[in-house]
Automatic annotation (TrEMBL), chain A:
<dbReference type="InterPro" id="IPR003594">
    <property type="entry name" value="HATPase_dom"/>
</dbReference>
<dbReference type="InterPro" id="IPR036890">
    <property type="entry name" value="HATPase_C_sf"/>
</dbReference>
<dbReference type="InterPro" id="IPR004105">
    <property type="entry name" value="CheA-like_dim"/>
</dbReference>
<protein>
    <recommendedName>
        <fullName>histidine kinase</fullName>
        <ecNumber>2.7.13.3</ecNumber>
    </recommendedName>
</protein>
<feature type="modified residue" description="Phosphohistidine">
    <location>
        <position position="54"/>
    </location>
</feature>
<keyword id="KW-0808">Transferase</keyword>
<dbReference type="InterPro" id="IPR002545">
    <property type="entry name" value="CheW-lke_dom"/>
</dbReference>
<dbReference type="Pfam" id="PF01627">
    <property type="entry name" value="Hpt"/>
</dbReference>
<dbReference type="InterPro" id="IPR004358">
    <property type="entry name" value="Sig_transdc_His_kin-like_C"/>
</dbReference>
UniProtKB/TrEMBL annotation, chain B:
<keyword id="KW-0597">Phosphoprotein</keyword>
<dbReference type="Pfam" id="PF00072">
    <property type="entry name" value="Response_reg"/>
</dbReference>
<dbReference type="InterPro" id="IPR050595">
    <property type="entry name" value="Bact_response_regulator"/>
</dbReference>
<protein>
    <submittedName>
        <fullName>Response regulator</fullName>
    </submittedName>
</protein>
<feature type="domain" description="Response regulatory">
    <location>
        <begin position="5"/>
        <end position="122"/>
    </location>
</feature>
<dbReference type="InterPro" id="IPR011006">
    <property type="entry name" value="CheY-like_superfamily"/>
</dbReference>
<dbReference type="InterPro" id="IPR001789">
    <property type="entry name" value="Sig_transdc_resp-reg_receiver"/>
</dbReference>
<feature type="modified residue" description="4-aspartylphosphate">
    <location>
        <position position="55"/>
    </location>
</feature>
């Protein structure tokens, strides 16, 4: 059955996915064990673990990996009863789950590495233990336990067995059941809906999400959410804070409905932390399960060992927002002090000014503190990448050695999350197209093993991540030929090698025309670039044919609070992140030269391209251009641009707020910010403007 | 040459790949893939879909909810839907049938059965 000599690509794909599922199961089970300790189970987590085992069973069955299929099938049975509340998650069950998972991982790894598996004895032993945890099947009554709720047939009809169980469980716990009706634009519904569901999940359980048609409006989509919570109707309405969302309380349960049967006789030990001892005791099938009962002292000592807290990044965002608002409040107090001094209240004004200064210092500390909590070492990203590289190189039959540098460079957690997909694509590209096969490499006189070097380091207010391979490099002649063929250029002799490399970032240049929303398929370098630009980063390529390529990603350290330069142009105010501002110059119209219909100035030894905001955004200038004006020189990575503005209005700390999906197509704007004096301004996206200016120029 | 489009909704990449190769071996259908119910909702107005193969257990919205949406929307009402789910989900499959699923296939699926159904619904 597991004859790998005939292993084809599908089997490799399966093994890759199986490894991923097994890894995820491992970390989710660890979370589950933590929760079981605290007695606060997350049904979503349990359901996700169930789904993992469920998928693995189905997949392994399709590929004829009987052992994996059998084991995951049994795990699925156990997890199904757990998620349906038919058995309790106690420490024996957890230990059995851990043991099964360990065996499952072993099976997947062995097959992935090309070995034969013969673990039928271990599997049977494991299955026996799983079966010991299973409760007799529950008797289902024919009467719908939801009749009193008055739920619509549509909602009820689309509930899965699991969702029905969650609904029942919440009714039994005496929770209030609500239906929530919302309507969204079809283009942004997922983002909008997740905002509401995140709010809801913070104070209850989201049981089901039923989409429906929004009347006759085809660009909209409606959702009916089924939600349970302890909170009152008005509290929920207030939390959602959106008049377009209607919330209704469903008929409250007077009597509790048939509770799920818990087989108390089988396992009713109190929950104790799963210790290594319990797990190892379970490895031998003959040893009866006899976990040592925890005494109060044990629990105490186990608790004090952990010195870390897991925090939802959303909470840190909220905290950061509050810090940002405090910073704004401080600015207005400082402004008030100055105003008072000017009006003659000098004594009080000086005291107020002093207090404001003290406040400013503490605020800076607070801001720094919150920022530091958000920072994580890029090493976490490396671990993920190394798994992916191993997987892909195995798929491709290439030998790749990995070298990581600067694992302790710190970056904002959200940036690390957002950069992992683009990096994955860059790495996949490097292995797919860069690194040659071992035979080719030997023929070229290179080491049979290719090398991928990922290094990161801080550079001013940015972090630079470089992905370097020693493969074949990018063939710029081929790129030029393709650009010619696609009609992007008329004459390749005018295109420099550097410009040619930039072509690969154009939409549709490197991708095939296949419709897919799935990441990893049909995604081109343009998406990589857009993703990096979306977090105010920039990507550059250096390549040398025959020797390899280097992708240089420059990223801001954080996006949470940034210092900006406030500028104005034709009566409009904008903010420019100070991290990208290199210098400002005061110039007159006569300093501007025109080269090939592009405005430039001579700045020291170099020629600096200029950009006028009114032309860039296409609005009409009010009044004549001033005689003298400022040029703000901005730069990201090695690229420079001069932005012509009328006036500079000083610096300020701001909290960038996203403008959402609807504004994504407007280039050059990264968000909006509140200035504290009731004014809201747009924050310019320097990296985006530079690429746009260079693109339209060339 | 056929220009009919089949939408596959499943959160497992491998399962989608298996279905794709099963479909590709019979005829030149356009295949559109979605890894979640939300993706399917977004793809529906953009692609003229002639047949949907969907899993039940998925993150965000489940296959039954997707089915209910389709059957209550005049634009998609007529699209045949085949549920592809595992044996353990019999109750859910039964619900799917009540909601108007045209057929179902049990995972691990028999490619010949899937091909037969596709030809039945797409001709």
């Amino acid at each position: 059955m597991t004859d790998l000599t005939a292993a084809n690509k599908a089997v490799k794909d399966f093994l890759a996915e199986a490894e991923e599922i097994a890894d995820q199961l491992g970390s989710e089970m660890a979370d589950l064990a933590d929760m079981a300790e605290s007695g606060d189970l997350d049904p979503d987590l349990l359901n996700s673990i169930f789904r993992g085992a469920h998928s693995l069973k189905g997949l392994a069955g399709m590929f004829g990996f009987g052992e994996i299929s059998e084991l995951s099938h049994n795990m699925e049975n156990l997890l199904d009863l757990l998620r349906l509340g038919k058995i309790k998650l106690d420490q024996v069950v957890i230990a059995v789950l851990f043991e099964s998972h360990e065996l499952l991982t072993l099976l997947v790894r062995t097959i992935a590495e090309g070995g034969e598996t013969n673990h039928s004895t271990e599997i049977s032993a494991c299955v026996v233990k799983i079966n010991a945890c299973l409760a007799p099947p529950e008797q289902i009554s024919n009467n719908s336990p939801f009749a009193h709720l008055g739920l619509s047939e549509q909602t009820l009809g689309a509930l899965t067995e699991y969702e029905e169980h969650r609904l029942l469980e919440n009714i039994n716990k005496g929770k209030k059941i609500y239906t929530i009706h919302t309507s969204f634009d079809l283009s942004t519904f997922d983002v909008d809906l997740s905002k509401i569901s995140d709010t809801l999940k913070a104070c209850g359980e989201l049981i089901s999400t039923l989409p429906s048609m929004a009347g006759i409006v085809e660009t909209n989509i409606d959702f009916d959410l089924l939600f349970s919570s302890n909170k009152e109707l008005n509290e929920i309405t207030q939390m959602i804070g959106n008049d377009a969302v209607t919330v209704a309380l469903l008929g409250h349960a007077d009597t509790t409905v048939s509770p799920s049967s818990f087989p108390d006789s089988i396992h009713s030990e109190p929950l104790i932390p799963v210790t290594k001892a319990v797990q190892t005791a379970l490895v031998s099938p003959d040893v009866p399960v006899q976990p040592a009962l925890a005494t109060g002292d044990d629990i105490q000592s186990a608790k004090s060992m952990s010195r870390t807290v897991r925090v939802d990044i959303g909470k840190l965002d909220d905290l950061m927002n509050i810090v940002g608002e405090l910073v704004l409040a401080h600015s207005s107090i400082a402004a008030l002090a100055i105003k008072m001094r000017n009006q003659g209240f000098s004594r009080i004004a000086v005291d107020l000014g002093k207090s404001a200064k003290g406040l400013e210092r503490k605020l800076a500390d607070l801001q720094k503190g919150v920022m530091e909590i958000r920072m994580i070492p890029v090493g976490q990203l490396y671990e993920k990448m190394s798994r992916i590289i191993r997987k892909i190189s195995r798929e491709q039959g290439k030998k790749v050695e990995l070298k990581f540098y600067g694992a302790d460079t710190e970056l904002d957690k959200l940036i690390v999350e957002d950069i992992s997909d683009p990096m994955m694509h860059i790495i996949r590209n490097a292995i797919d197209h860069g690194i040659e096969s071992p035979e080719q490499r030997i023929a070229l006189g290179k080491d049979e093993k290719g090398t991928i070097r990922i290094s990161s380091f801080s550079k001013g207010n940015h972090v630079v991540i470089e992905v370097e391979d020693d493969g074949s490099g990018i063939d710029t002649e081929k790129v030029k030929a393709k650009a010619l063929q696609k009609g992007l250029v008329q004459d390749v002799s005018m295109v420099s090698d550097k410009e040619a490399i930039d072509f690969i970032f154009l939409p549709g240049f490197s991708t095939t025309e296949k419709v897919s929303e799935v990441s990893g398929r049909g995604v081109g370098m343009d998406v990589v670039k857009n993703n990096i630009t979306a977090i105010s980063g920039m990507v550059d390529i250096e390549t040398s044919k025959g020797f390899g390529s280097r992708f240089i990603i420059t990223l801001p350290i954080t996006l949470a609070i940034i210092k900006v330069l406030i500028i104005s142009c034709s009566g409009r105010t904008y903010a420019l992140p100070i991290t990208s501002v290199l210098e400002t110059l005061l110039l007159a119209e006569k300093n501007i030269n025109t080269v090939e219909r592009k405005e430039v100035i001579q700045l020291r030894e170099t020629t600096l391209p200029l950009l006028r905001l009114d032309r860039f955004f296409g609005f009409e200038r009010q009044g004549p251009r001033p005689e003298e004006f400022y040029v703000v020189v901005v730069g990201v990575a090695e690229k420079r641009l001069g932005i012509i503005v009328d006036d500079l209005q000083g610096q300020q700390d701001i909290v960038i707020k996203s403008l959402g999906e609807a504004f994504k197509r407007y280039k050059g704007i990264s968000g909006a910010a509140d200035l504290g004096d009731q004014r809201t301004i747009l924050v310019l996206d320097v990296a985006g403007m530079i690429s746009e200016a260079i693109r339209s120029g060339s | 040459m056929s220009s009919k489009t089949i939408l596959i909704v499943d959160d497992s990449k491998t399962m989608r790949a298996m279905l794709v190769s099963t479909i590709e071996s019979i005829n030149n259908y356009n295949i559109v893939e979605a890894s979640t119910g939300f993706e399917a909702l977004r793809l529906l107005p953009r692609e003229k879909v002639d047949l949907i193969l969907t899993d039940i257990n998925m993150p965000d919205i489940n296959g039954l909810e997707l089915l209910s949406y389709l059957r209550n929307n005049p634009n998609y009402q007529e699209i045949p839907v085949i549920i592809i789910s595992s044996e353990g989900s019999q109750k859910d499959i039964d619900k799917g049938k009540q909601l108007g699923a045209n057929d179902y296939v049990i995972k691990p699926f028999d490619p010949a059965r899937v091909q037969e159904l596709i030809q039945l619904y797409l001709g």
